[in-house]
Design goal:
About 80% of the residues lie in helices and about 0% in strands. It contains eleven helices and no strands.
Length: about 190
């Protein structure tokens, strides 16, 4: 017998296997069995995001938050999409809610830092990047973004230290190596 939970589980397995369009069918079928399922709705939204259909994903994520206002992952994804669209106030609001619900998520902290940096607030961005790197010390991205924020603030010594850490973690990352080269050339 096909169940809602079985379809949701199947959807996530397919999603993880890199089959978002097939996974979306499973999540959609699960929603047919239980229309108010935030988990199935989030599955649909995740598939849409992975397939690059961001406008549809945005609408689906808004529906998830209507079904479950404390769905931290949906709020985090909403924040990322709003940030990509340049809607920084909406992005900050969604990501702050996500961080309040799950303060141990380095992804939410890093996304919030990116929004702050794009919004011209490098000091706030740096705080979020430092939180992200404290939560996930092995994240080259968090160190790289902290270096960019420090560079914007004119903190050259600290920017060099952060980018050197990022280079240790991701020695083949072109963006990291380019910034490292730029910062060490200016010594």
């Amino acid at each position: 017998m096909v169940t809602h939970d079985g379809l949701v589980e199947e959807g996530w397995e397919l999603y993880e296997e890199g089959e978002p369009s097939v996974a979306m069918e499973a999540f959609t079928d699960a929603r047919g069995l239980k229309p108010d399922s935030a988990e199935a709705a989030y599955g649909v939204a995740s598939c849409l995001m992975r397939m690059g259909r961001l406008e549809k994903a945005l609408e689906a994520l808004k529906e998830v938050v209507q079904l479950s206002p404390d769905h931290a992952l949906a709020l985090g994804d909403l924040g990322q999409i709003f940030g990509r669209q340049g809607k920084n106030a909406e992005a900050r609001e969604a990501l702050l809610r996500a961080v309040r619900l799950d303060p141990s998520s380095p992804d939410f902290c890093q996304s919030l830092g990116c929004v702050c940096l794009n919004d011209g607030d490098p000091r706030a961005a740096l705080e979020w990047f430092e939180k992200a790197s404290a939560l996930w010390p092995e994240s080259a991205d968090a160190w790289y973004m902290a270096a960019k924020a420090r560079l914007t603030l004119g903190e050259m010594t600290e920017a060099r230290a952060a980018i050197q850490r990022a280079a240790e973690l991701a020695p083949d990352d072109d963006g990291v190596l380019e910034l490292l080269s730029r910062l060490t050339a200016s010594e």
